[in-house]
Amino acid sequence: MNFRRGRARDEPEINLIPLIDILIVVLIFLFLTTTYSRFAELQINLPEAAATKSTERPEVLSVAVDSSGKYAINGAAVPFGNTQNFALKLREAAKGVKEPVIAISADAAATHQSVINVMESARLAGYSHISFTTQTKR
Q1: Is residue 106 part of a domain?
Q2: CATH code at position 101
């Protein structure tokens, strides 16, 4: 006995809308959690060298400037007449050293012009290595 003879057989149906919804959610999740790295720098390979640390320390001329505009080179007070005379004093203090480092120790209340005077004198003397000394706050 076949009771289903007159009935049409229903075809199984796959509903694609929930599948598409799940795929969209997965794609959104991947878009939000993926990190994209972009290289904005140049990719370069630096050359290699094998060198030892220099045992020679550069000659340092310490130039001090106080708040009242007085100058000292290596602890000895030096009057500042003009930049050319001070350049001569720097050359004398260097004692023939070709390229000493000029370390400027200026008081916090010293004028900007007094520091510029030392820098200009160092330039006139032919010294291009200038550094400034500081201290940490207490």
Answers
A1: yes
A2: 3.30.420.270
